[in-house]
Structure prediction request, 193 residues.
Amino acid sequence: MSDTSLRLRPLVSLVFFLSAYSPLMIILTIKDLNFSLPHFFGSATTSGILIFMAIGSSVVTLMTVRSVESGLTVVVTKAANKSGDMFGYTIPYMLSFMRVDLGDWQTLLSLVLFLSVLFIMAYRTQTVFINPVLAIAGYMLIDCTFKRDGKEVQAMVVTREPISAGDSMQLDQLSHYLYIRINTGHKNTEGHA
Prediction:
């Protein structure tokens, strides 16, 4: 298996994690809007950083998953859509319904601590690809059983296309139980694994 940019290293995982909360960052920035101020934000610096992180992490995430071009050829034996698991990311979005003062250092420190704990959990459990930005972009999470090197493997697969039993496809391994399907624009006609 070749080393790709999608391997779950801490920095790559952090970018994917930030993209998962980019809609929350935008919501918090909207709540910070104040048209009576000359710069339109209660805390222009914090709002600017949140907008930059939201847009930057989302763009990098989408460009990265689209860049995967090679992987293992496998034959699917079972597949079940698990995209509903992405709704677990919505719980921290409840923050947007509370009063959050982006100019208050205690509020910001508390928010950073909370998101840091969530990031550590997501990184350790290898769930950073369960990401609402990917869902919005059309990616699904499929619980898949496939044959690889004569053995049956069960793992989660990030894909833009539906997967059915009997399909032959190429996957790149991201972690022990997580794979990404190679883009169909780069289809390979190799035989079954």
The first strand starts at residue 72 and ends at 81. The helical segments are 10-20, 22-31, 44-66, 105-124, 132-136. The longest helix spans residues 44-66.
